[in-house]
Amino acid sequence: MRILGAIARHPSGRIGAAIIAVYLLAAVLGAFGITPHDPLQQFRIDRLHAPSTTYWMGTDLLGRDATSRLMRGIGQSFVIAFASVAIATAAGTVIGLLAAWWGNLWDGILMRVMDVLLAFPAILLALLIIAIVGPGTFTSVAAIGIVYTPIFARVVRGPALSLKQRDFVDAARTFGSSQTFILTRHLLLNLVAPLTVQVTLALAWALLTEAGLSFLGLGTQPPSPSLGLMLSESRNLMERAPWLMLFPALVIMLGILGFNLTGDALRDILDPRTQGRAA
Amino acid sequence: MNYLTQRLATFPLILLGVSVLVFVSIRLIPGDAITAMLGTEAGLLTPDQRASLAAYFGIDQPIYLQYGRWLVGLFSGDLGISVTYGRPVLAVILERFPLTLELALLSMVIALCVGIPAGVLAATRNEGPADLGIRVLAMLGQSTPSFVVGLVIIFVLSVVFGAVPPMGIFTPIYVNPLVNLSQLIFPAITLGFAFAASVTRISRSAMLDVLSDDYVRTARSKGASARSVIWRHAFPNALIPVVTLSGIEFGYLLGGAVIVEQIFALPGIGRLVLDAISQRDYALVEGCVLFIALNFLIVNLLVDLAYAALDPRIRLGGR
Protein backbone atom coordinates (compact mmCIF):
# COMPACT_ATOMS: atom_id res chain seq x y z
CA MET A 1 0.00 0.00 0.00
CA ARG A 2 2.85 2.37 0.87
CA ILE A 3 4.36 1.72 -2.51
CA LEU A 4 1.09 2.57 -4.29
CA GLY A 5 1.06 5.90 -2.45
CA ALA A 6 4.62 6.58 -3.49
CA ILE A 7 3.77 5.82 -7.13
CA ALA A 8 0.79 8.16 -6.94
CA ARG A 9 3.09 10.96 -5.72
CA HIS A 10 5.70 10.30 -8.43
CA PRO A 11 4.93 12.46 -11.50
CA SER A 12 5.54 9.83 -14.20
CA GLY A 13 4.42 6.98 -11.94
CA ARG A 14 1.02 8.62 -11.63
CA ILE A 15 0.54 8.70 -15.40
CA GLY A 16 1.81 5.14 -15.82
CA ALA A 17 -0.40 3.74 -13.07
CA ALA A 18 -3.43 5.60 -14.46
CA ILE A 19 -2.85 4.07 -17.90
CA ILE A 20 -2.49 0.56 -16.44
CA ALA A 21 -5.65 1.05 -14.38
CA VAL A 22 -7.67 2.09 -17.45
CA TYR A 23 -6.32 -0.90 -19.41
CA LEU A 24 -7.14 -3.30 -16.58
CA LEU A 25 -10.67 -1.91 -16.46
CA ALA A 26 -11.06 -2.33 -20.24
CA ALA A 27 -9.68 -5.86 -20.03
CA VAL A 28 -12.01 -6.89 -17.19
CA LEU A 29 -15.06 -5.36 -18.92
CA GLY A 30 -14.03 -7.12 -22.14
CA ALA A 31 -13.62 -10.44 -20.35
CA PHE A 32 -17.14 -10.18 -18.88
CA GLY A 33 -18.55 -9.34 -22.30
CA ILE A 34 -19.40 -5.76 -21.34
CA THR A 35 -18.35 -4.27 -24.67
CA PRO A 36 -20.27 -1.85 -26.93
CA HIS A 37 -20.89 -4.73 -29.39
CA ASP A 38 -20.03 -8.41 -29.73
CA PRO A 39 -16.35 -8.38 -30.81
CA LEU A 40 -16.93 -11.28 -33.22
CA GLN A 41 -20.27 -10.14 -34.71
CA GLN A 42 -20.08 -8.95 -38.32
CA PHE A 43 -22.27 -5.94 -39.13
CA ARG A 44 -22.20 -6.53 -42.88
CA ILE A 45 -23.89 -3.28 -43.94
CA ASP A 46 -21.53 -1.23 -41.78
CA ARG A 47 -18.24 -2.54 -43.14
CA LEU A 48 -15.28 -0.11 -42.83
CA HIS A 49 -17.55 2.35 -41.02
CA ALA A 50 -15.66 5.46 -39.82
CA PRO A 51 -15.68 6.20 -36.07
CA SER A 52 -19.16 7.32 -35.00
CA THR A 53 -21.44 7.31 -31.96
CA THR A 54 -22.45 3.71 -32.74
CA TYR A 55 -18.95 2.44 -33.54
CA TRP A 56 -16.62 4.57 -31.40
CA MET A 57 -13.46 3.50 -33.18
CA GLY A 58 -15.03 2.39 -36.47
CA THR A 59 -15.46 -1.08 -37.93
CA ASP A 60 -13.10 -3.37 -39.86
CA LEU A 61 -13.38 -5.02 -43.28
CA LEU A 62 -15.83 -7.61 -41.93
CA GLY A 63 -17.92 -4.99 -40.14
CA ARG A 64 -16.73 -5.93 -36.65
CA ASP A 65 -16.66 -3.19 -33.99
CA ALA A 66 -13.07 -2.03 -33.39
CA THR A 67 -13.69 -0.77 -29.83
CA SER A 68 -15.02 -4.12 -28.65
CA ARG A 69 -12.22 -5.96 -30.40
CA LEU A 70 -9.61 -3.69 -28.86
CA MET A 71 -11.06 -4.24 -25.36
CA ARG A 72 -10.92 -8.00 -25.86
CA GLY A 73 -7.47 -7.66 -27.43
CA ILE A 74 -6.14 -5.76 -24.42
CA GLY A 75 -7.34 -8.58 -22.19
CA GLN A 76 -5.67 -11.16 -24.41
CA SER A 77 -2.37 -9.20 -24.43
CA PHE A 78 -2.48 -8.68 -20.66
CA VAL A 79 -3.16 -12.35 -19.95
CA ILE A 80 -0.20 -13.38 -22.12
CA ALA A 81 2.06 -10.64 -20.72
CA PHE A 82 1.24 -11.35 -17.06
CA ALA A 83 1.40 -15.12 -17.43
CA SER A 84 4.70 -15.08 -19.31
CA VAL A 85 6.31 -12.61 -16.90
CA ALA A 86 5.07 -14.75 -13.98
CA ILE A 87 6.81 -17.77 -15.53
CA ALA A 88 9.99 -15.79 -16.22
CA THR A 89 10.02 -14.33 -12.70
CA ALA A 90 9.47 -17.67 -10.98
CA ALA A 91 11.94 -19.63 -13.12
CA GLY A 92 14.54 -16.85 -13.20
CA THR A 93 14.35 -16.25 -9.45
CA VAL A 94 14.75 -19.94 -8.59
CA ILE A 95 17.66 -20.34 -11.02
CA GLY A 96 19.39 -17.13 -9.87
CA LEU A 97 18.94 -17.94 -6.16
CA LEU A 98 20.21 -21.49 -6.50
CA ALA A 99 23.15 -20.42 -8.66
CA ALA A 100 24.16 -17.91 -6.00
CA TRP A 101 23.48 -20.25 -3.06
CA TRP A 102 25.16 -23.40 -4.39
CA GLY A 103 27.99 -21.47 -6.05
CA ASN A 104 31.01 -22.95 -7.83
CA LEU A 105 30.15 -25.57 -10.42
CA TRP A 106 26.36 -25.15 -10.23
CA ASP A 107 26.68 -21.38 -10.53
CA GLY A 108 28.84 -21.89 -13.60
CA ILE A 109 26.50 -24.39 -15.25
CA LEU A 110 23.25 -22.55 -14.54
CA MET A 111 24.52 -19.15 -15.58
CA ARG A 112 26.17 -20.49 -18.77
CA VAL A 113 22.84 -22.05 -19.73
CA MET A 114 21.28 -18.61 -19.19
CA ASP A 115 24.03 -17.10 -21.37
CA VAL A 116 23.16 -19.55 -24.12
CA LEU A 117 19.52 -18.41 -24.02
CA LEU A 118 20.64 -14.77 -24.02
CA ALA A 119 22.64 -15.39 -27.22
CA PHE A 120 19.39 -15.37 -29.19
CA PRO A 121 17.57 -12.13 -29.96
CA ALA A 122 14.25 -12.28 -28.06
CA ILE A 123 11.95 -12.44 -31.06
CA LEU A 124 14.12 -15.08 -32.76
CA LEU A 125 14.08 -17.38 -29.73
CA ALA A 126 10.32 -16.93 -29.55
CA LEU A 127 10.03 -17.74 -33.28
CA LEU A 128 12.11 -20.88 -32.80
CA ILE A 129 9.86 -22.07 -29.98
CA ILE A 130 6.75 -21.29 -32.03
CA ALA A 131 8.24 -23.23 -34.97
CA ILE A 132 8.52 -26.27 -32.71
CA VAL A 133 5.19 -26.09 -30.91
CA GLY A 134 3.02 -24.20 -33.38
CA PRO A 135 1.42 -20.79 -32.78
CA GLY A 136 -1.24 -20.12 -30.15
CA THR A 137 -1.85 -18.45 -26.82
CA PHE A 138 -0.06 -21.07 -24.72
CA THR A 139 2.94 -21.07 -27.03
CA SER A 140 3.19 -17.29 -26.80
CA VAL A 141 3.12 -17.47 -23.01
CA ALA A 142 5.78 -20.18 -22.88
CA ALA A 143 7.96 -18.54 -25.54
CA ILE A 144 7.93 -15.08 -23.96
CA GLY A 145 8.39 -16.63 -20.51
CA ILE A 146 11.49 -18.57 -21.59
CA VAL A 147 12.91 -15.58 -23.46
CA TYR A 148 12.89 -13.36 -20.36
CA THR A 149 13.92 -15.99 -17.78
CA PRO A 150 17.70 -15.34 -18.09
CA ILE A 151 17.23 -11.65 -17.35
CA PHE A 152 15.54 -12.46 -14.05
CA ALA A 153 18.19 -15.05 -13.21
CA ARG A 154 20.83 -12.36 -13.66
CA VAL A 155 18.91 -9.73 -11.71
CA VAL A 156 18.54 -12.15 -8.78
CA ARG A 157 21.97 -13.78 -8.80
CA GLY A 158 24.08 -10.62 -8.30
CA PRO A 159 22.37 -9.27 -5.17
CA ALA A 160 21.83 -12.83 -3.85
CA LEU A 161 25.59 -13.43 -4.01
CA SER A 162 26.29 -10.37 -1.87
CA LEU A 163 23.41 -11.11 0.53
CA LYS A 164 24.82 -14.61 1.03
CA GLN A 165 28.00 -13.08 2.53
CA ARG A 166 26.08 -10.92 5.01
CA ASP A 167 26.23 -11.52 8.76
CA PHE A 168 22.51 -12.10 9.22
CA VAL A 169 22.66 -15.07 6.85
CA ASP A 170 25.57 -16.53 8.82
CA ALA A 171 23.65 -15.91 12.03
CA ALA A 172 20.57 -17.66 10.67
CA ARG A 173 22.73 -20.61 9.69
CA THR A 174 24.37 -20.87 13.12
CA PHE A 175 21.10 -21.07 14.94
CA GLY A 176 19.97 -23.78 12.63
CA SER A 177 17.52 -22.26 10.14
CA SER A 178 16.81 -24.59 7.24
CA GLN A 179 18.18 -23.78 3.79
CA THR A 180 14.72 -23.22 2.39
CA PHE A 181 13.92 -20.80 5.21
CA ILE A 182 17.11 -18.81 4.64
CA LEU A 183 16.59 -18.75 0.89
CA THR A 184 13.00 -17.57 1.05
CA ARG A 185 13.01 -15.47 4.18
CA HIS A 186 16.43 -13.85 4.18
CA LEU A 187 17.43 -13.78 0.53
CA LEU A 188 14.16 -13.59 -1.40
CA LEU A 189 12.53 -10.98 0.83
CA ASN A 190 15.52 -8.70 0.35
CA LEU A 191 15.26 -9.10 -3.40
CA VAL A 192 11.66 -7.93 -3.65
CA ALA A 193 12.63 -4.34 -4.51
CA PRO A 194 14.86 -5.05 -7.53
CA LEU A 195 12.42 -7.76 -8.66
CA THR A 196 9.43 -5.41 -8.56
CA VAL A 197 11.17 -2.96 -10.88
CA GLN A 198 12.22 -5.74 -13.22
CA VAL A 199 8.74 -7.28 -13.32
CA THR A 200 7.17 -3.97 -14.32
CA LEU A 201 9.70 -3.36 -17.08
CA ALA A 202 9.43 -6.98 -18.25
CA LEU A 203 5.65 -6.50 -18.59
CA ALA A 204 6.36 -3.68 -21.05
CA TRP A 205 8.69 -5.94 -23.08
CA ALA A 206 6.25 -8.83 -22.93
CA LEU A 207 3.46 -6.62 -24.31
CA LEU A 208 5.83 -5.51 -27.07
CA THR A 209 6.92 -9.06 -27.91
CA GLU A 210 3.34 -10.37 -27.87
CA ALA A 211 2.17 -7.58 -30.17
CA GLY A 212 5.14 -8.27 -32.46
CA LEU A 213 4.43 -12.01 -32.62
CA SER A 214 0.75 -11.53 -33.37
CA PHE A 215 1.64 -8.81 -35.90
CA LEU A 216 3.64 -11.50 -37.72
CA GLY A 217 0.63 -13.82 -37.45
CA LEU A 218 2.45 -16.15 -35.06
CA GLY A 219 0.77 -15.14 -31.81
CA THR A 220 -2.95 -15.17 -31.03
CA GLN A 221 -4.80 -16.84 -33.89
CA PRO A 222 -7.88 -15.37 -35.58
CA PRO A 223 -10.78 -14.88 -35.12
CA SER A 224 -9.75 -14.00 -31.51
CA PRO A 225 -9.10 -10.27 -31.40
CA SER A 226 -5.48 -9.34 -30.78
CA LEU A 227 -3.80 -5.94 -30.90
CA GLY A 228 -0.88 -6.96 -33.11
CA LEU A 229 -3.12 -8.80 -35.55
CA MET A 230 -5.55 -5.87 -35.81
CA LEU A 231 -2.64 -3.57 -36.66
CA SER A 232 -1.28 -6.02 -39.20
CA GLU A 233 -4.70 -6.38 -40.86
CA SER A 234 -5.00 -2.59 -41.12
CA ARG A 235 -1.93 -2.37 -43.34
CA ASN A 236 -3.66 -2.81 -46.68
CA LEU A 237 -6.54 -0.57 -45.65
CA MET A 238 -4.60 2.39 -44.32
CA GLU A 239 -5.74 4.72 -47.08
CA ARG A 240 -9.42 3.78 -46.93
CA ALA A 241 -9.71 3.27 -43.18
CA PRO A 242 -6.84 4.95 -41.30
CA TRP A 243 -8.70 4.54 -38.00
CA LEU A 244 -8.13 0.80 -38.18
CA MET A 245 -4.42 1.52 -37.90
CA LEU A 246 -4.56 4.52 -35.58
CA PHE A 247 -6.40 2.99 -32.62
CA PRO A 248 -4.55 -0.34 -32.27
CA ALA A 249 -1.23 1.51 -32.71
CA LEU A 250 -2.14 3.98 -29.96
CA VAL A 251 -3.42 1.24 -27.67
CA ILE A 252 -0.24 -0.83 -28.04
CA MET A 253 2.03 2.19 -27.57
CA LEU A 254 0.20 3.60 -24.54
CA GLY A 255 0.11 0.18 -22.87
CA ILE A 256 3.88 -0.23 -23.17
CA LEU A 257 4.33 3.39 -22.08
CA GLY A 258 2.23 2.77 -18.97
CA PHE A 259 4.45 -0.08 -17.78
CA ASN A 260 7.67 1.74 -18.72
CA LEU A 261 6.62 4.85 -16.77
CA THR A 262 5.60 2.81 -13.74
CA GLY A 263 8.82 0.80 -13.89
CA ASP A 264 10.93 3.95 -13.98
CA ALA A 265 8.96 5.44 -11.10
CA LEU A 266 9.42 2.26 -9.06
CA ARG A 267 13.15 2.35 -9.72
CA ASP A 268 13.28 5.95 -8.49
CA ILE A 269 11.29 5.08 -5.39
CA LEU A 270 12.99 1.80 -4.49
CA ASP A 271 16.55 2.70 -5.41
CA PRO A 272 17.50 6.09 -3.93
CA ARG A 273 20.79 6.16 -5.85
CA THR A 274 19.06 6.65 -9.18
CA GLN A 275 16.71 9.38 -7.96
CA GLY A 276 15.70 11.47 -10.97
CA ARG A 277 18.11 9.65 -13.26
CA ALA A 278 15.64 7.65 -15.26
CA ALA A 279 14.07 9.75 -17.98
CA MET B 1 41.40 -15.10 -13.40
CA ASN B 2 41.62 -11.99 -15.53
CA TYR B 3 38.21 -10.86 -16.77
CA LEU B 4 39.14 -10.95 -20.43
CA THR B 5 40.70 -14.41 -20.37
CA GLN B 6 37.65 -15.66 -18.51
CA ARG B 7 35.43 -14.08 -21.13
CA LEU B 8 37.43 -15.63 -23.98
CA ALA B 9 37.49 -19.03 -22.28
CA THR B 10 33.71 -19.26 -21.87
CA PHE B 11 33.04 -18.09 -25.45
CA PRO B 12 33.50 -21.50 -27.15
CA LEU B 13 31.50 -23.12 -24.34
CA ILE B 14 28.51 -20.88 -24.93
CA LEU B 15 28.83 -21.41 -28.66
CA LEU B 16 28.74 -25.16 -28.12
CA GLY B 17 25.67 -24.74 -25.92
CA VAL B 18 23.97 -22.70 -28.64
CA SER B 19 24.71 -25.38 -31.23
CA VAL B 20 23.26 -28.10 -28.99
CA LEU B 21 20.15 -26.03 -28.33
CA VAL B 22 19.60 -25.32 -32.03
CA PHE B 23 20.25 -28.94 -33.04
CA VAL B 24 17.96 -30.41 -30.41
CA SER B 25 15.14 -27.89 -30.87
CA ILE B 26 14.97 -28.45 -34.63
CA ARG B 27 14.71 -32.19 -34.01
CA LEU B 28 11.89 -31.61 -31.53
CA ILE B 29 9.70 -30.36 -34.35
CA PRO B 30 7.05 -33.01 -34.96
CA GLY B 31 7.37 -35.10 -38.12
CA ASP B 32 10.47 -36.73 -39.59
CA ALA B 33 12.96 -35.06 -41.91
CA ILE B 34 12.04 -37.18 -44.94
CA THR B 35 8.37 -36.23 -44.79
CA ALA B 36 9.41 -32.60 -44.24
CA MET B 37 11.60 -32.76 -47.34
CA LEU B 38 9.29 -34.57 -49.74
CA GLY B 39 5.94 -33.38 -48.43
CA THR B 40 2.95 -35.51 -49.47
CA GLU B 41 5.12 -37.52 -51.88
CA ALA B 42 6.79 -39.12 -48.87
CA GLY B 43 3.66 -41.26 -48.59
CA LEU B 44 4.57 -42.97 -51.89
CA LEU B 45 7.88 -44.32 -50.55
CA THR B 46 8.24 -48.03 -49.86
CA PRO B 47 9.70 -48.92 -46.44
CA ASP B 48 12.94 -49.93 -48.19
CA GLN B 49 13.23 -46.63 -50.03
CA ARG B 50 12.55 -44.79 -46.80
CA ALA B 51 15.25 -46.74 -44.98
CA SER B 52 17.82 -46.09 -47.69
CA LEU B 53 16.97 -42.38 -47.70
CA ALA B 54 17.36 -42.34 -43.92
CA ALA B 55 20.74 -44.03 -44.27
CA TYR B 56 21.72 -41.53 -46.99
CA PHE B 57 20.94 -38.53 -44.76
CA GLY B 58 22.44 -40.25 -41.73
CA ILE B 59 19.23 -40.00 -39.72
CA ASP B 60 19.21 -43.75 -38.98
CA GLN B 61 22.12 -43.21 -36.59
CA PRO B 62 21.87 -42.38 -32.88
CA ILE B 63 21.28 -38.69 -32.13
CA TYR B 64 24.73 -38.00 -30.62
CA LEU B 65 26.42 -39.35 -33.76
CA GLN B 66 24.15 -37.16 -35.88
CA TYR B 67 25.10 -34.16 -33.75
CA GLY B 68 28.80 -35.01 -34.11
CA ARG B 69 28.53 -35.20 -37.88
CA TRP B 70 26.57 -31.96 -38.01
CA LEU B 71 29.17 -30.23 -35.82
CA VAL B 72 32.06 -31.44 -37.99
CA GLY B 73 30.16 -30.12 -41.00
CA LEU B 74 29.78 -26.75 -39.32
CA PHE B 75 33.53 -26.33 -39.05
CA SER B 76 33.90 -26.75 -42.80
CA GLY B 77 31.07 -24.26 -43.41
CA ASP B 78 28.61 -27.00 -44.36
CA LEU B 79 25.22 -26.01 -42.96
CA GLY B 80 23.29 -28.35 -45.19
CA ILE B 81 21.12 -27.70 -48.25
CA SER B 82 18.08 -25.44 -48.19
CA VAL B 83 15.05 -27.30 -49.52
CA THR B 84 13.31 -24.12 -50.74
CA TYR B 85 16.30 -22.65 -52.54
CA GLY B 86 18.02 -25.89 -53.52
CA ARG B 87 21.36 -24.33 -52.61
CA PRO B 88 23.79 -24.55 -49.68
CA VAL B 89 22.36 -22.81 -46.61
CA LEU B 90 25.50 -20.76 -46.01
CA ALA B 91 25.38 -19.33 -49.54
CA VAL B 92 21.73 -18.27 -49.09
CA ILE B 93 22.52 -16.63 -45.74
CA LEU B 94 25.59 -14.79 -47.00
CA GLU B 95 23.57 -13.45 -49.91
CA ARG B 96 21.04 -11.88 -47.53
CA PHE B 97 23.47 -10.71 -44.89
CA PRO B 98 24.88 -7.51 -46.54
CA LEU B 99 21.41 -5.91 -46.45
CA THR B 100 20.94 -6.69 -42.76
CA LEU B 101 24.44 -5.44 -41.96
CA GLU B 102 23.92 -2.20 -43.87
CA LEU B 103 20.53 -1.64 -42.25
CA ALA B 104 21.98 -2.25 -38.78
CA LEU B 105 24.88 0.15 -39.41
CA LEU B 106 22.58 2.88 -40.78
CA SER B 107 20.22 2.57 -37.81
CA MET B 108 23.11 2.77 -35.39
CA VAL B 109 24.51 5.89 -37.09
CA ILE B 110 21.06 7.52 -36.87
CA ALA B 111 20.65 6.49 -33.23
CA LEU B 112 24.07 7.77 -32.15
CA CYS B 113 23.81 11.04 -34.10
CA VAL B 114 20.45 11.81 -32.49
CA GLY B 115 20.83 10.10 -29.12
CA ILE B 116 24.23 11.31 -27.89
CA PRO B 117 23.73 15.07 -28.45
CA ALA B 118 20.18 14.84 -27.06
CA GLY B 119 21.35 12.93 -23.97
CA VAL B 120 24.26 15.28 -23.28
CA LEU B 121 22.05 18.33 -23.78
CA ALA B 122 19.46 16.94 -21.36
CA ALA B 123 22.13 16.18 -18.75
CA THR B 124 23.63 19.66 -18.91
CA ARG B 125 20.16 21.26 -18.61
CA ASN B 126 19.16 18.90 -15.79
CA GLU B 127 15.52 19.50 -14.73
CA GLY B 128 15.20 22.40 -17.21
CA PRO B 129 12.53 22.54 -19.95
CA ALA B 130 14.94 21.10 -22.56
CA ASP B 131 15.71 18.16 -20.28
CA LEU B 132 12.05 17.54 -19.62
CA GLY B 133 11.16 17.67 -23.32
CA ILE B 134 13.96 15.29 -24.27
CA ARG B 135 13.00 12.87 -21.49
CA VAL B 136 9.37 12.77 -22.58
CA LEU B 137 10.38 12.18 -26.21
CA ALA B 138 12.85 9.46 -25.22
CA MET B 139 10.21 7.73 -23.11
CA LEU B 140 7.71 7.83 -25.99
CA GLY B 141 10.39 6.61 -28.39
CA GLN B 142 11.22 3.69 -26.17
CA SER B 143 7.58 2.72 -25.82
CA THR B 144 6.74 2.76 -29.53
CA PRO B 145 7.15 -0.63 -31.23
CA SER B 146 9.10 -0.63 -34.49
CA PHE B 147 6.09 -1.84 -36.44
CA VAL B 148 4.06 1.16 -35.28
CA VAL B 149 6.82 3.55 -36.36
CA GLY B 150 7.20 1.72 -39.68
CA LEU B 151 3.46 1.82 -40.42
CA VAL B 152 3.26 5.51 -39.52
CA ILE B 153 6.18 6.27 -41.87
CA ILE B 154 4.53 4.32 -44.70
CA PHE B 155 1.20 6.03 -43.96
CA VAL B 156 2.74 9.52 -44.03
CA LEU B 157 4.69 8.75 -47.20
CA SER B 158 1.86 7.18 -49.14
CA VAL B 159 -1.26 8.97 -47.90
CA VAL B 160 0.16 12.44 -47.19
CA PHE B 161 2.91 12.68 -49.83
CA GLY B 162 1.49 10.14 -52.27
CA ALA B 163 4.91 8.52 -52.59
CA VAL B 164 5.30 4.81 -52.03
CA PRO B 165 8.74 3.87 -50.69
CA PRO B 166 10.46 1.73 -53.34
CA MET B 167 9.82 -1.87 -52.37
CA GLY B 168 10.03 -5.19 -54.08
CA ILE B 169 13.33 -5.65 -55.87
CA PHE B 170 16.21 -4.66 -53.63
CA THR B 171 19.19 -2.82 -55.13
CA PRO B 172 22.55 -3.56 -53.47
CA ILE B 173 24.76 -0.59 -52.59
CA TYR B 174 27.45 -1.45 -55.18
CA VAL B 175 24.88 -1.41 -57.99
CA ASN B 176 23.31 1.95 -57.25
CA PRO B 177 24.08 3.63 -53.90
CA LEU B 178 21.30 6.22 -54.28
CA VAL B 179 18.50 3.76 -54.97
CA ASN B 180 19.93 1.55 -52.24
CA LEU B 181 19.82 4.42 -49.74
CA SER B 182 16.28 5.39 -50.75
CA GLN B 183 15.21 1.82 -50.01
CA LEU B 184 16.99 1.55 -46.70
CA ILE B 185 16.64 5.00 -45.18
CA PHE B 186 13.04 4.62 -43.98
CA PRO B 187 13.55 1.16 -42.47
CA ALA B 188 16.72 2.53 -40.85
CA ILE B 189 14.80 5.47 -39.36
CA THR B 190 12.18 3.02 -38.12
CA LEU B 191 14.79 0.90 -36.35
CA GLY B 192 16.82 3.92 -35.28
CA PHE B 193 13.81 5.49 -33.52
CA ALA B 194 13.68 3.31 -30.41
CA PHE B 195 17.45 2.81 -30.58
CA ALA B 196 17.99 6.61 -30.45
CA ALA B 197 15.62 6.80 -27.47
CA SER B 198 17.69 4.24 -25.51
CA VAL B 199 20.93 5.99 -26.46
CA THR B 200 19.47 9.31 -25.28
CA ARG B 201 18.41 7.86 -21.94
CA ILE B 202 21.71 6.12 -21.26
CA SER B 203 23.83 9.11 -22.39
CA ARG B 204 21.84 11.39 -20.15
CA SER B 205 22.14 9.24 -17.04
CA ALA B 206 25.83 8.48 -17.68
CA MET B 207 26.58 12.20 -18.15
CA LEU B 208 24.69 13.06 -14.97
CA ASP B 209 26.80 10.51 -13.07
CA VAL B 210 30.05 11.86 -14.43
CA LEU B 211 29.16 15.55 -14.10
CA SER B 212 28.76 15.17 -10.34
CA ASP B 213 32.24 13.59 -9.99
CA ASP B 214 35.02 15.39 -8.15
CA TYR B 215 37.36 15.58 -11.10
CA VAL B 216 34.77 17.46 -13.14
CA ARG B 217 34.41 19.96 -10.31
CA THR B 218 38.22 20.30 -10.29
CA ALA B 219 38.26 20.93 -14.03
CA ARG B 220 35.58 23.60 -13.61
CA SER B 221 37.35 25.29 -10.72
CA LYS B 222 40.65 25.51 -12.55
CA GLY B 223 38.76 27.54 -15.14
CA ALA B 224 38.11 25.14 -18.02
CA SER B 225 35.35 26.38 -20.34
CA ALA B 226 31.92 24.78 -20.03
CA ARG B 227 32.29 23.23 -23.49
CA SER B 228 35.69 21.73 -22.63
CA VAL B 229 34.42 20.34 -19.32
CA ILE B 230 31.50 18.62 -21.03
CA TRP B 231 33.16 17.23 -24.13
CA ARG B 232 36.80 16.76 -23.06
CA HIS B 233 36.57 15.90 -19.39
CA ALA B 234 33.17 14.38 -18.78
CA PHE B 235 32.05 12.87 -22.09
CA PRO B 236 34.81 10.25 -22.64
CA ASN B 237 33.96 8.68 -19.30
CA ALA B 238 30.24 8.78 -19.95
CA LEU B 239 30.86 6.92 -23.20
CA ILE B 240 31.36 3.49 -21.60
CA PRO B 241 27.68 2.64 -20.95
CA VAL B 242 26.75 4.15 -24.33
CA VAL B 243 29.21 1.84 -26.09
CA THR B 244 27.86 -1.18 -24.21
CA LEU B 245 24.24 -0.39 -25.01
CA SER B 246 24.90 0.42 -28.67
CA GLY B 247 26.93 -2.74 -29.09
CA ILE B 248 24.21 -4.95 -27.68
CA GLU B 249 21.50 -3.24 -29.75
CA PHE B 250 23.69 -3.54 -32.85
CA GLY B 251 24.13 -7.23 -32.13
CA TYR B 252 20.36 -7.64 -31.98
CA LEU B 253 19.92 -5.76 -35.25
CA LEU B 254 22.41 -8.08 -36.97
CA GLY B 255 19.94 -10.83 -36.17
CA GLY B 256 17.72 -9.20 -38.72
CA ALA B 257 14.83 -6.96 -37.89
CA VAL B 258 12.19 -9.59 -38.57
CA ILE B 259 9.22 -7.25 -38.32
CA VAL B 260 10.67 -4.19 -40.04
CA GLU B 261 12.04 -6.26 -42.91
CA GLN B 262 8.56 -7.73 -43.23
CA ILE B 263 6.84 -4.31 -43.30
CA PHE B 264 9.22 -2.79 -45.85
CA ALA B 265 9.51 -6.02 -47.88
CA LEU B 266 13.30 -6.17 -47.52
CA PRO B 267 15.01 -9.50 -48.22
CA GLY B 268 17.28 -9.57 -45.14
CA ILE B 269 18.16 -12.26 -42.62
CA GLY B 270 15.04 -11.62 -40.54
CA ARG B 271 12.66 -12.28 -43.45
CA LEU B 272 14.75 -15.30 -44.40
CA VAL B 273 14.19 -16.89 -40.96
CA LEU B 274 10.50 -16.07 -40.97
CA ASP B 275 10.01 -17.55 -44.45
CA ALA B 276 12.15 -20.58 -43.58
CA ILE B 277 9.95 -21.23 -40.54
CA SER B 278 6.70 -20.93 -42.49
CA GLN B 279 8.05 -23.11 -45.31
CA ARG B 280 9.42 -25.66 -42.83
CA ASP B 281 12.88 -25.43 -44.37
CA TYR B 282 14.61 -26.78 -41.28
CA ALA B 283 18.21 -26.75 -42.52
CA LEU B 284 17.75 -23.08 -43.32
CA VAL B 285 16.13 -22.29 -39.95
CA GLU B 286 18.97 -24.10 -38.20
CA GLY B 287 21.64 -22.30 -40.21
CA CYS B 288 20.07 -18.85 -39.78
CA VAL B 289 19.54 -19.21 -36.05
CA LEU B 290 23.11 -20.40 -35.58
CA PHE B 291 24.48 -17.62 -37.77
CA ILE B 292 22.50 -14.96 -35.90
CA ALA B 293 23.49 -16.26 -32.47
CA LEU B 294 27.14 -16.39 -33.54
CA ASN B 295 26.98 -12.77 -34.76
CA PHE B 296 25.39 -11.71 -31.53
CA LEU B 297 28.00 -13.49 -29.42
CA ILE B 298 30.89 -12.02 -31.45
CA VAL B 299 29.49 -8.50 -31.20
CA ASN B 300 29.03 -8.94 -27.45
CA LEU B 301 32.59 -10.17 -27.11
CA LEU B 302 33.84 -7.14 -29.06
CA VAL B 303 31.75 -4.87 -26.84
CA ASP B 304 33.36 -6.40 -23.78
CA LEU B 305 36.80 -5.90 -25.29
CA ALA B 306 35.98 -2.26 -26.10
CA TYR B 307 34.63 -1.86 -22.61
CA ALA B 308 37.91 -3.14 -21.19
CA ALA B 309 39.88 -0.82 -23.44
CA LEU B 310 37.81 2.16 -22.21
CA ASP B 311 37.93 1.25 -18.53
CA PRO B 312 41.33 0.27 -17.12
CA ARG B 313 39.72 -1.09 -13.94
CA ILE B 314 38.24 -3.97 -15.94
CA ARG B 315 41.34 -4.49 -18.07
CA LEU B 316 43.46 -4.98 -14.97
CA GLY B 317 41.15 -7.63 -13.56
CA GLY B 318 39.63 -5.58 -10.76
CA ARG B 319 36.37 -7.48 -10.98
Description:
The complex is a heterodimer of chains A (279) and B (319). With 279 residues, chain A is an all-alpha fold. Chain A has one domain (2-274): MetI-like (MetI-like fold, Orthogonal Bundle), CATH 1.10.3720.10. Chain A is built from 11 helices and no strands. In chain A, helix 9 runs antiparallel to helix 11 and helix 10 (227-233) runs antiparallel to helix 11 (243-270). Residues 275-279 of chain A have low confidence and may be disordered. By secondary structure, chain B is mainly α. The mean pLDDT of chain B is 84. In chain B, helix 5 packs across helix 8, helix 6 packs across helix 8 (177-211) and helix 9 (214-221) packs antiparallel against helix 10. The relative contact order of chain B is 0.14. Chain B starts with a helix and ends with a helix. Chain B folds into 2 domains: 2-89, no CATH class; 95-266 and 292-310, MetI-like fold. The chains are: A mainly alpha (279), B mainly alpha (319). Chains A and B meet through helix 4, helix 5, helix 9, helix 10 and helix 11 of A and helix 1, helix 6, helix 7, helix 8 and helix 11 of B.
